[in-house]
Amino acid sequence: MELWIRSQDRTCLMKIKRVDYDYTAGLHRILVDGYKVLVGIYETKERALEVLDDLQKCLSVEFEFKGNYKKQAALIKMKMLNGLYGFIYNMPKE
């Protein structure tokens, strides 16, 4: 299982191992790989946590469909409809 993220400013595409929420200097931030890379900034903690919830849903859907080819075809169709191509999650701008 692997997940790729494209940063909020669209300048970085990376395979990730860990995602963290951080609040520093008035910024609600999403960081990956042990606080090394900033991938998104949001106005509220609630919005940042919603983004983390979306990432979690992507991962849990992938676990559910692994090994079942009929379900995998449905997963691919669902991802295409939702703008998720392959295992890449585009960080929302707001």
Describe the structure.
The protein has 94 residues and is α+β, with helices and mostly antiparallel strands. The chain has one domain. 36% of the residues lie in helices and 31% in strands. It contains two helices and six strands, in the order βββββααβ. It has helices spanning 45-65, 69-81; strands at 3-6, 13-16, 19-24, 27-32, 37-42, 88-90. The protein has a three-stranded mixed sheet with strand order 2-1-6. It has a three-stranded antiparallel sheet with strand order 3-4-5, with helices on one face. The chain is elongated.
Any key phrases for this structure?
alpha+beta; three-stranded antiparallel sheet; 31% strand; 94 residues; 2 helices; 36% helix; 6 strands; single chain; elongated
Contiguous low-pLDDT stretches (5 residues minimum) are none
The largest pleated sheet is described as:
3 strands, mixed
Name the beta content range. 25-35%
**End-to-end separation:** 27 Å
On the 0 to 100 scale, the average pLDDT is 79
* Structural classification: alpha+beta
Radius of gyration: 14 Å
Question: What is the helix content?
Answer: 25-40%
The count of strands amounts to 6
Number of discrete helical segments = 2
Give me the side-by-side strand order of the main sheet.
Answer: 2-1-6
- How many domains comprise the coordinates? 1
Gross geometry: elongated
